[in-house]
Each structure stands twice: as structure tokens, then as C-alpha cells.
Amino acid sequence: MPHDESILSPAAPYDALLLASFGGPDGPDDVMPFLRNVTAGKGIPDERLAEVAEHYHHFGGASPINGQNLALQRALVDELTRRGIDLPVLWGNRNWTPYTKDALAAAHADGHRRILALVTSAYSSYSGCRQYREDFWTALDELEDELGFDDEEPLRLDKLRSYFNHPGFVEANTDAVAEALGKVPEDARVVFVTHSIPDTMEEASAVSGATYSAQHLDVAASVAAAVGERLGRTLEWDLAYCSRSGPPSQPWLEPDVNDLLTALAGQGVQSVVLAPIGFISDHMEVVYDLDTEALETADSLGLTAVRADTVGTREPFVRGLVDLILERAAAERALAAGETPLPGAAVGTLPAWHGVCPPGCCRRQAGVDSGRPAACAVDPLR
Ligand SMILES: CC1=C(CCC(=O)O)c2cc3nc(cc4[nH]c(cc5[nH]c(cc1n2)c(C)c5CCC(=O)O)c(CCC(=O)O)c4C)C(CCC(=O)O)=C3C
Ligand SMILES: [Fe+2]
Asked: Which residues make up the binding site for Fe(2+) (predicted)?
């Protein structure tokens, strides 16, 4: 009998996974070139850039994000191996080496043709969805020119759905918040934190179903309910934002975490847990904007504050990611067979997110074409 791998692998039709991330500097000399990559054409004021460069230099000029992605890559390989799934895991970034395009070129050279991308942003917005997909498109387009893809078997890239409401992500955050609450007095308030985005980007994220902030509120409610059940009490919580950039004239999502801490202290709150549900690892936004700035703010207000872990390589998170890979693979096989895929796993009030982006999904600004096609979409031009 002929050996047919597509029947044997639960990850089929995929033959490789691409861990797609933001990237960060590896040393002081990388900081400014990295920041120029990130902010090209974004209208970020020079003063803000200089300030952010200082955050990196405060930590020796290297971002922790690259080491964290390597750890996640290893954890994914371990979990796949444990389950007997043969799926190589590649790693590529948008803004620093190793770049996505180089990872895809290496995958192509190794004979991979159907790649599934796992983006290190859990939520859906321009920053966490379309911006990655635009860069995927550019990388694939350049590679096609350079390598001349075989028309019979072009390199095809799909993107795993936004996984903010996947049970594994919620469970890992629940564990982390419950652990952090064990370190502070019983009446501590939970402040969930995520990256701020411009109001215009928030509005544009609505096209995908629920806005970026609504996605976070749903996760926060799920986590607070699960932790409350575990500890046998009702939690009081808020959602706050960090890492605002852009000109002061441009409105971004609020309240800023520092302002919220000030307000809470004014209301007599004495202790808080900062729960960074918007980030999957302890990268610069977490170690600087939360551990350095926000914890200092709390200290100056006399608040007892503890920062909960990000999901990192926690077992429920990594297990959930592998479940998601298999869910998507099964859905692709069903579609190819003319069948209807099973609905994806999700907790909270929102449905499982789409795996293929609908027209208009996650634009920087609603109704405004960025002028760049985006991969992993129903229509790359919309
Ligand atoms: C929603 C969101 C996430 C969370 C989802 C996710 O995790 O992906 C995120 C993650 C990250 N953001 C990061 C770094 C930066 N983000 C910047 C700028 C911006 N981020 C934005 C949004 C987001 N960003 C936006 C709307 C801008 C303004 C420019 C624009 O409109 O696009 C700038 C420019 C300087 C500044 O203005 O701060 C830097 C240096 C790093 C790497 C950290 C490290 O090195 O450890 C990570 C993981
Ligand atoms: Fe999208």
C-alpha cells in the first residue's frame, strides 16, 4: 500500500507551523534600527521613540521577547512530540531577526508547502491580525518573485484564529490570577491590563464581530468568574490599558493603568493584582510598563500590588494551542471534503473567532484601505 502521510498526520493538510511574532532587539545596537522598523510610517513622535529606546536600554538593550518565543517554540515542539504529531515549528518575526520571510524561505527549501501561522497576539485588531497578514502577504510576494513558486504546489499560508477566548488561554490566565491572589489580602481588586490602541483602530476592530476592548472584557469576565468560583468569592475587577504611544491629540483606549491605580487608591482600595491578559509573555510592555512603571505607581500610592504571570509556556496554554492546531487542521480537511467543520472551542459570550478573515477585518481605520493586500483572508484586497 502506498504510504500516504496526509492520512496519518492529525495536523494534515499542514506540514509546518510558523510561530509568528513581533520581534525585539538582541542588544543595544539593535534598538534604534528595530524601533525604526516598528514605527515606519506610523506617526509616532520622536520623543516617544527616544523614551521607548530608554526602556530597552534600561534592560541592557535586549528585549526578553526573543528568548520567550524560543521557549514557546520548544514547549510547542514538546507538546506535539508528546502527542506523536510530526509538525516542525518555525519562528519568524515582523520587526526583527529572524524575519518571517527568511523563516518561510527556509520552510520552502525544506519542502514545506502548506504552513499554519500561530501569531503571538491573542486578540483581534489591526495590530494583532491584519498587520501580521499584510506582512505575510509581502513576504510571500517577495519569495514568489525570488524563488518562482511551482504553480502546482505554491507555498500556502493560513493563520490560526485569534485565540483570546480559547479554553486553554482562559484556563492559563485563571491559574495565574488565582496564584497571584494568593499573595495579597483577600479583598484585593483585580486589574486586567492590555495594550492600548487608538480609538480609530478599536472602531475598525468591530468589523470582525466584537471590538478589541469587548474581546478583553469577555476574557476578563470569564477569568474573574472562574477564579471567583475556585476561591469561593466574588471578585471585583476592572480593565485598564498600558503602553499608549502616538501623538497626545489622538485618542487611545483608556483608562491608563497608572490613572486607574490612582483612582482606585482614592476610593480606598488597598491591594491589587495586575493581570496582563493582553500579552502572552513577559516582554518589554510587561517588564517595563507594568513591572517598572505601574508597580512604582502602586508603591507611591501605598497600594500593595502583585503582577500575575502571563500565560508564557504554562501547560494549559500550550496544550490549548496544540488543540487549536488540530481543530484547524480538521476544519480544513472537512472543507476539502465538502463537509461543514465543527464549531471551534470557546468560552465566554463570544463565538470562536474566524480562521479566514472576512472582508474589512481588522483595518487600521474603518473603511480606509491601507493600500497593502493581506494574506489569510477571503479576499486579500479587502
Ligand atoms: C495591541 C498591541 C500589542 C499586543 C498584542 C501583541 O502582543 O502582539 C502590541 C505588542 C507589542 N508591541 C511591542 C513593541 C512596540 N509597539 C509599538 C507601537 C504600537 N503597538 C501597538 C499595539 C500593540 N502592540 C500600537 C497600536 C502601536 C503604535 C504604532 C502602530 O500604530 O502600529 C512600538 C513603537 C514605540 C511605541 O510607541 O511604543 C514598540 C517598540 C512589542 C515588543 C515588545 C518587546 O520588545 O519586548 C509587543 C509584543
Ligand atoms: Fe482579522
From this structure: 195, 285
Question: Quick check: CB of 112 below 6 Å from ligand 1?
Answer: no
Q: Rg (Cα) of the chain, in Å, rounded?
A: 21
For residue 64, which atom of ligand 1 is closest to its CA? 46
Question: Which protein residue's CA is at the shortest distance from atom 7 of ligand 1?
Answer: 121
Quick one: which ligand is closest to 164's CA? 1
pLDDT at 5 > cutoff 60: no
Retrieve residue 114's grid coordinates. 502548506
Domain limits, the chain: 5-163+314-336, 167-307
Which ligand is nearest the CA of 202, by number?
A: 1
Residue 213 CB less than 6 A away from ligand 1: no
CATH number of this structure's domain 5-163+314-336, picked from the four choices 3.40.50.1400, 3.30.1510.10, 3.90.79.10, 3.40.50.360: 3.40.50.1400
Give pTM, 2 decimals: 0.96
Which residue's alpha carbon is nearest to atom 28 within ligand 1?
A: 245
Q: What are the pLDDT digits (tens) for 232-280? A: 999 999 999 999 988 889 999 999 999 999 999 999 999 999 999 999 9
Residue type, 68: Q
Measured between its terminal Cα atoms, the distance across the chain in Å is: 45
Closest atom of ligand 1 relative to the 34 alpha carbon: 40
Let me know if the fold of 5-163+314-336 is the same as that of 167-307.
yes
Minimal-distance CA residue to ligand 1 atom 33? 38
Q: Which of 342, 324, 320, 377 is nearest to 169 (CA)?
A: 320
For 167-307, CATH number?
A: 3.40.50.1400
The reply to whether ligand 1 has any atom less than 6 angstroms from the CB of 195 is yes
> Cell digits for 36?
525604526
Q: How far is CA 212 from CA 100, 122, 217, 266, 344, in A?
A: 25, 10, 9, 28, 19
Contact 155, 105 (CB under 8 A): no
